[in-house]
Design brief:
The complex is a heterodimer of chains A (about 400) and B (about 45). Chain A has about 400 residues and is mostly helical. Chain A has 15 helices and two strands. In chain A, strands 1-2 form a two-stranded antiparallel sheet. Chain A is globular. Chain B has about 45 residues and is an all-alpha fold. Chain B has one helix and no strands. The longest helix of chain B is centred in the first third of the chain and has 19 residues. The termini of chain B are far apart. Classes of the chains: A mainly alpha (about 400), B mainly alpha (about 45). The interface between A and B is medium-sized, with 33 and 27 residues.
Chain lengths: ~400, ~45
């Protein structure tokens, strides 16, 4: 196998783009919380970038992509990147060094648990967060990644389509976020008034950086610099824009004002929804997917508010529902005209693909619920998941990290 | 046109046409009740 310099350059650049998404997520989330919790919220993303970078090279990559064991998990042969060198791996990316593929996938593994942190923002104990994140990456993310993307994974063998992580990244994190929000319970003061975002500009900037990084996430998933990467880039931008327009319009109709934060959240919903489909659908499909994401994710937030679940930053509504819609839509709008190596969806004459996608969706939901609940209960045996009431009242920046985000607050 | 294109056109029309009927100035907006335990700034003189 010969290494292609163009493909290698694109995948490494894409890895860097995806890396940027995690701190961008920190800012997206950081702007949405109260000012006494902004540092702790940003720290969740920054810390996970460090934690999973190490976990991935030690054992995460081996569990997710290593030699298949019973179609459910990778073996330990690649622990410590043993056998993961600079020679291409034909199963995953035949034209780039194996380590380039590994580091690209590392950035996916990094951002996924970081997404969950939005659900328990403003109330989770940092030590519990550390333990939870490490266990979740190992026992929830790595197996699902193997099922869908690993050579020999059972969903991979079944023919499930997930170009860049609708099931692996977004359903897993979004559904786990819902479980985490239910287990941790509501924040003090929830339902007594509105928790106003402390810096909406920070959130919009975070959304813009997420959008930018997502080109690496989706177009990079072609693991080659060519036509498929270009198509993924175009449909990613199209669906994102359409979802932002749709969310803004729906919120304008519902709340009588065009929300800026709504447009930003809508863009993220569109990015999420197009992720699994980005290598399989054309631009018309992308418009429908973006539209559906704007409507479905906005409706999910209304439902979440009605049933009074304190998923603080709406991770379930945006990532869980957006990812579910995207994974299903892949089974509707996929066409071999875009990706000859994949399959047609329902609207191109292959209804079976929609059923396969439903199986993948159900499996991701099921394992995420079971795994996350078990891990939270296990961690709670050793470390209380929540901070104490007085710590929550003073804010996690001071109570967990001993640092205020803004000097003006500490000077008071 | 294939079904996907028809759906895309319908979705676009719904969004774009929707702007024609949406309110162009906000109705009376109630100030949000903030939940905050943060202290308020105080003036300190020497």
């Amino acid at each position: 196998m010969k290494i292609d310099s163009g493909d290698t350059a694109w995948v490494l650049a894409s890895a860097a783009l995806v890396m940027l998404m995690t701190p961008a997520l920190g800012f997206f989330y950081g702007g949405l919380v109260r000012r006494k919790n902004v540092l702790s919220t940003i720290m969740h993303s920054f810390f996970i970038l460090c934690l999973i970078s190490v976990q991935w090279v030690l054992w995460g990559y081996s569990l997710a992509f290593g030699p298949d064991k019973f179609h459910i998990i990778g073996g330990l042969e690649w622990v410590g990147l043993n056998h993961v060198g600079l020679t291409p791996n034909a199963d995953y990316a035949p034209t780039i060094p194996h380590q380039a593929y590994m580091v690209f996938q590392m950035m996916f593994a990094v951002i996924t648990p970081a997404l969950i942190s939005g659900a328990f923002a403003e109330r989770q104990r940092f030590k519990a967060f550390v333990l939870f994140s490490l266990l979740w990456a190992t026992f929830v993310y790595d197996p699902i990644a193997h099922w869908v993307w690993g050579a020999g994974g059972w969903l991979h063998n079944l023919g499930a389509l997930d170009f860049a992580g609708g099931t692996v990244v977004h359903i897993s994190s979004g559904v786990s976020a819902l479980v985490a929000a239910l287990v941790l319970g509501r924040r003090i003061g929830f339902g007594q008034g509105k928790f106003e975002p402390h810096d909406a500009t920070m959130t919009v900037l975070g959304a813009c950086l997420l959008w930018f990084g997502w080109f690496g996430f989706n177009a990079g998933s072609a693991v080659a610099a060519g036509g498929l990467a270009t198509s993924a880039f175009v449909v990613t931008n199209t669906a994102t824009a359409m979802a932002a327009l749709t969310w803004m319009t729906v919120s304008w109709w519902h709340k009588r004002q065009p929300s800026v934060l709504g447009a930003a959240a809508g863009a993220v919903a569109g990015l999420v929804a197009i992720t699994p489909a980005s290598g399989f659908v054309n631009v018309m499909g992308a418009i429908v997917i973006g539209f559906g994401a704007g409507v479905a994710c906005y409706a999910a937030i209304q439902l979440r508010e009605r049933i009074r679940v304190d998923d603080a930053l709406d991770v379930w509504a945006v990532h869980g529902i957006g990812g579910t819609w995207g994974a299903l839509a892949t089974g509707l709008f996929a066409t071999v005209a875009i990706n000859a190596g994949a399959a047609n969806g329902l609207f191109y004459g292959n209804p079976k693909q929609a059923l396969i996608q439903m199986v993948a969706i159900g499996a991701s939901w099921g394992w995420s619920i079971i795994g996350t609940f078990a891990i939270l209960k296990f961690v709670n045996l050793f470390v209380p998941l929540r901070v104490q009431e007085d710590e929550e009242a003073v804010g996690l920046d001071l109570s967990q990290h001993g640092e205020p985000a803004y000097a003006s607050v500490s000077a008071l | 046109m294939d079904p996907t294109t028809i759906m895309a056109v319908v979705c676009s029309v719904i969004v774009f046409a929707g702007w024609l009927v949406l309110p162009h100035s906000p109705s009376a907006v109630k100030p949000a009740v903030l939940v905050s335990e943060e202290r308020q700034p105080v003036r300190v003189s020497a």
